[in-house]
Amino acid sequence: MKKSWLLPLGYTVLLGACSMPVQHGSVDASGNWKPDRSIEFIAPAAAGGGWDTTARMLSKTIDENDLANQSFGVVNKPGGGGAVAWAYIHKRNDPHNIFIGSPPLHFVELAGQSQYGYKDFTPIANLIADYGAFAVRDDAKWDTLDELFADMREDPSQVTTIGVSSPGSMDHMQFILFAQAAGVDITKIRYVSDQDGGAMTSVLNGSVDVISTGVSEAAEQARAGKMKILGITAPERLEGDYLSTLPTGIEQGIDAEFVVWRGVFGPPDMTDEQLAYYEDVFEQASLSDSFAEVREAYGWDELYMGHEAFTEFLDEQSVDLQAALDELGFGGN
Asked: Which N-terminal stretch is annotated as signal sequence (predicted)?
C-alpha cells in the first residue's frame, strides 16, 4: 500500500516539558493574544532561496492585506543548513520570533548535524507544497523511471545521480525514497553532491546520468529540449500546459511520493493563545487572492495545514525518513 505523508498517525504535543510558557505580548479581556512589537520572521538561509522567497512573499501578503496588528520583517540567518537559525529561535524562545521551515528541518537533525528538529519547536501551519523531479539528458536511453530503476535493480552502481543537496538531505533522499520503493539496493547508489551550481551542467555534458532536483528547475531544461523528465514526486499530475504532461512515479507503479513542504514554526513554549493568533494569520494569508497569485507565479501548490494536521504530517514523514537514513548509515539518533 502506498505511503502517504498526508495521512495522520497521531498528534504529538510540542510544548517544552520543563519550561513555562513565554508570556511576551498582550492578552485582551477575551483571552486573545496579540504581539506587542514587530515580528521577526526568520529565513534560515541567505537571500534568494526557497526559505527566503517563501518568507518574503508571506510577509508581503500579510502586510498588504492588513492581516496582523504588527509588521512581519524577514531576517536572514544562514548557516549550518538551517541550524544557526534554529538555535537562535530556540534560545530566544520568544513568540515574536518565528521561522520558515521545510524538509531540511528533518534531515539535518536526523543525520546528527543539529541538536534541533521539528519537535523542538511549535509547528504553526504549512502553506505550500513543491515537488521534485528526476531528469536525464535528452538522448539518454531511459524514457521512464521504470526503465531507469530496472537497470539499477541489476546494478545500482552503474548509474550516477547528482543533486544540489548534501548526502542525506533533500535531493539525495527524494531519489533514495523512490529507488527504495522500486526495489533498488539503496546502499549501493552513487550520489554526487554539487552545491556550487554545476549539477545541471554535469548531466548535460554526460558526466553524470540523472539529476534529482525541483520540478521547476528540470522543467526549464526540458522545455528547451535539453533534458527529459522521467518522473516527478507529486502524488498526482500538476496543473499547467506543460507540467500536466509530466508523469508521476505513482502512475509508473512506484509507490512513493515526496512533498517539499514549506511551513511556519514558532519557538518551543508557545501558549495556546499565541499559537491561535499565528494560525489565524497564516490561514487568512493562504486563502487570500494575493497569495494565490504568488503560488501561481512560483509554481507552488496549495497545501495548507493547521497546527494539528501539520504536526501529524511531520510525525509520519519523520518516521519514513529516519528509516531510510538509518539504512544508508546517516542516522544520527
From this structure: 1-24
